[in-house]
Specification:
By secondary structure, the protein is mainly alpha-helical. The protein contains 4 helices and 2 strands; from the N terminus they run αβαβαα. It folds into 2 domains: 71 residues, no CATH class; 53 residues, no CATH class. A two-stranded parallel sheet has the order 1-2.
Length: 156
Amino acid sequence: MPGFINITLEDHFIVSYLNAMSEADKFGCEEIGASKTIIVDYGGPNVAKPLHVEHLRTAIIGESIKRIGRFLGYKMLGDVHLGDWGLQIGLIIAELKRRSPDLIYFDESYKGEYPMEAPFNITELEEIYYYYVKYAEAGKESSSVWVVKPTKYKTH
């Protein structure tokens, strides 16, 4: 039957085991990953939002997994996955076009040089993204080009 197995260990056994482990190479862990490669793909930040401390969480977990693998002898490669960045950039472009349809970037017949400076600053860019997400959550269409399902996008 399912249940518990109780084991009682003498203190001197535990102490001698830990002492032997501390003296052993790599604390007695075997290098099981020799000549094997592992790729760790961990999530990165939403490229349309500003970075904040929570974005460190996946980076720390990913780096920890890589270090454990290296300790066990694996060749570890890390890849920070930025996710569906095209969607966020598309949301920003659609909202920017809705707000400023006369910008030369939206003129398909424009043949000249584009301006060296953006028509908005980073603060405005962040506001554009949040506005569009909230607008989409309300179930409205923010652009004639882009329609967003209201339940898919959340803000912090």
